[in-house]
Specification:
With 243 residues, the protein is mainly β. The chain has one helix and 13 strands; from the N terminus they run H-E-E-E-E-E-E-E-E-E-E-E-E-E. The protein starts with a helix and ends with a strand. The relative contact order is 0.19.
Length: 243
């Protein structure tokens, strides 16, 4: 019986040695899978409101004095409208896919005031034009960039201005004149702009515009006349909030 125990003990010894020789085997743990955050592109469709701050420059209104519809005398100077202006705007935009880019278009109602004006005194005459306000309806359209956070657009609009126009003098070669009128005129607006969105609601814009309000014939009580031709360029920045 003792001899039979030897093979069993030998087998147990070798079996234990094999287990200890391999050491501790760590369990395999699968790596954690983190959720992927999907960032939705910014949308431009919807209503918005904003404020603007700008500067008008390079107006060109050559002042002439005539009798009735005849302009017989032109002064050696002109009214070059310029000055700071501020405004409020309210609009709505639509966004549509088109080719490789999305397109945005919409309408905007704006009101602007400030100090767009000019005056001069020469050859016995003084003249002044002061723009009190601008009410405008603008259409804007253009493409977005690839990541849809920047909009490039053209501007086409119609504007109505309220302004005060004065031409006065008693010693010039065209005779005495005393024109002092408040006037309203309708004209056109063209321009270019770019707008950048910071987040879903807030964006910043920069725009160039040209305003032209045609020609208004003005007369005093004695029939002395002039033609007001208000126009100007303007550069402005704006801050918008999309609802």
């Amino acid at each position: 019986m003792k001899l039979n125990l030897i093979p069993v003990a030998t087998a147990a010894l070798f079996s234990g040695s094999a287990v200890f020789a391999g050491g501790y085997v760590a369990p395999i743990v699968a790596p954690a899978v983190l959720p992927v955050e999907v960032i939705e592109p910014l949308t431009w469709q919807g209503g918005y409101a904003g404020v603007t701050l700008g500067y008008a420059f390079s107006g060109d209104d050559e002042v002439g004095i005539g009798q009735g519809n005849e302009r017989t005398y032109t002064t050696p100077n002109e009214l070059e409208l310029s000055g700071a202006n501020y405004g409020l705007r309210l609009g709505y935009r639509w966004q549509r896919a088109g080719g490789s880019r999305d397109w945005v278009f919409g309408g905007e109602l704006g009101y602007e005031g400030g100090d767009i004006s000019d005056d001069f005194t020469t050859d016995g005459y003084s003249a002044e034009n002061e723009v009190n306000s601008v009410l405008a309806l603008r259409l804007k359209a253009g493409p977005l960039n690839n990541v849809k956070n920047t909009w490039f657009y053209g501007i086409l609009g119609i504007g109505r201005i309220d302004y005060d126009y004065t031409v006065y003098g008693t010693e010039g070669v065209a005779g005495a004149v005393d024109i002092n009128e408040g006037q309203t005129s309708t004209g056109y607006i063209v321009g270019l702009g770019v707008e950048r969105k910071f987040n879903t609601n807030w964006s910043l814009s920069g725009e160039w515009e040209y305003h032209n309000y045609g020609k208004d014939h003005l007369e005093d009580v004695n029939g002395k006349s002039t033609e007001a031709t208000p126009d100007w360029h303007t550069i402005k920045i704006g801050l918008n909030y999309q609802f």
